[in-house]
Design brief:
- The chain has six helices and no strands.
- By secondary structure, the chain is mainly α.
- It folds into two domains: 3-85, Orthogonal Bundle (Helix Hairpins); 86-118, no CATH class.
- Helix 1 (3-17) packs across helix 4 (59-83) and helix 2 packs antiparallel against helix 4 (59-83).
- It starts with a helix and ends in an 11-residue tail after the last helix.
């Protein structure tokens, strides 16, 4: 069993023990995922780049970063389960697509979008 499969099983068990599946429509899961991503973003609000880079060194800020990243991952696993998506397979397929869009010879050191690469 992969880590994703084990985590998915754990989050589904957690959800089902609380009878929360009734609230987990695909739309609600997508919304919740974005709300959690916004909470992660909120940790950087009004901070300089240097302050954001220092967050992992501060124990309280590091815990908040971990918690928000975990929330995002858990909702993503629930969303993928509801949509029948193999996340690991989808990620590998997307890396292949990105490799075609961003060949090293053109994209190395560039922040340009693939449509703007020469």
């Amino acid at each position: 069993m992969s880590d994703f499969e084990a985590l998915t099983a754990a989050v589904l068990q957690f959800r089902d023990a609380r009878d929360w599946r009734q609230f987990h429509s695909l739309r609600n899961l997508i919304t919740s995922l974005n709300l959690e991503a916004a909470e992660l973003l909120e940790l950087t609000q009004w901070k300089s780049d240097a302050e954001v880079e220092a967050l992992p060194a501060d124990p309280r800020a590091a815990e908040a970063l971990r918690d928000e990243c975990a929330d995002i991952l858990l909702y993503l696993l629930l969303l993928a389960d509801a949509a029948g998506i193999d996340l690991a397979g989808a990620a590998r397929a997307k890396l292949l697509k990105n490799a075609e869009k961003y060949p090293v010879a053109k994209a190395y050191g560039s922040r340009a979008k693939y449509t703007e690469l020469d």
